[in-house]
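User: Could you write out the 3D structure of this protein bound to pyridoxal-5'-phosphate? I've included everything you need below.
Assistant: Certainly. Input first, then the structure.
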Amino acid sequence: MSFDSRALRRQFPLFTRQPALHYLDNAATAQLPQVVLDALIAHETGRRANVARGAYPLAEEATEAYALARERVRRFLNAASVAEVVFTSGTTASINFFAHGFGARLGAGDEILVSEAEHHSNFVPWQQLAERSGARLRLLPLAADGRIDAARIEQFVSARLKLVAITHCSNVTGALTDLAAVVRAAHAVGARVMVDGAQAAQHGAPDVQALGVDAYAFSGHKCFGPNAIGVLWVRAELLETLPPVFAGGGMVGHVSLAKTTYAEPPARFEAGTPPIAQAVGLGAALEWMASLCWPEIRAHEERLGRCLLDALAAMPDVRILGPREMRERLPIVAFAVDGVHPHDLTQVLGDYGVCLRGGHHCAQPLHAAFGLEASARASLALYNDDADIDALLAGLDRARTMLR
Ligand code: PLP
């Protein structure tokens, strides 16, 4: 299928809303195409039952639908096996899960490396792990343009380093991390690499085998899928060694009064009734993404991102956070306007139908590194077009006049 942003936009019921919305908060959550809504309704109305429990046909159909969703995630990630795909409630849950599972083996003398650019979801779990395990949390600094300075990782690798937990793409600057450099340096000392893919996954399927990472986390709602579903992918050879974090139904082999044995992965890591319809919806969203022409989408997103960056760069009172070149980032653009608080700015823009986020975007250490408390952020997705950028720029002019 070839790319046509208007045709694509028509697949999203939200965009029939009047007056029209300029939705530029896709880094917070993406909209749902009709095909995903249809899949959710079809499942909940025609196949709703618990999974991996009942033997009657309805339960078997639900179990098959859940298994198909896992296979679709496997294909999206190009993972080697469905056994490596654990469903969670989102990126935050995936990272916390990994921090508890992998973290169980860490202790004093071990080191965990994160960057200063992380979302709180990939920072606080490691800070907590360091506090409870005695491991040392180290921080990979930023380069002058706000990118993670992956070239400096060599200064942090030693036999003590056990894990690098790093974002694929910053949710503030849109900057892409040089994961190849991170993986090379970490693996040279036997350390593992866990990647926060919350932002990158929306902009094209990450190939976990090509990336060479050990674990990858992402959320359904940022990939045109439902809320309350996410994925933790962990390389089989590592996942098999992790202890289960949650215990209960569905994750056991056999339970006796004296002892419990566990099921094989991924069931071992999915205690209790899973988010079944949400997984089915995510599977539909990833299949929909797979049906699109990504080179054209990337070119479209890159062109729009460049338009926005160029227009903002031409404004003397605007400071763009992060790299200026689109080849180093995804179309997530945070900026600060002199003398205008981002909350006020985004409120005024909201009154004009332009949906932008203002705040610290759950990245306070990164904002502190920029000497800011907050910023405004426009994050583009495949259905955005020139009219959205024009509306943002016009709104910015009006807001500036009103707020000063
Ligand atoms: N990591 C990054 C980079 C994010 O942008 C986000 C959400 O914005 C998260 C983690 C957390 O994702 P969720 O709220 O879906 O768990």
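The chain has 13 helices and 15 strands.
User: Perfect, thank you.
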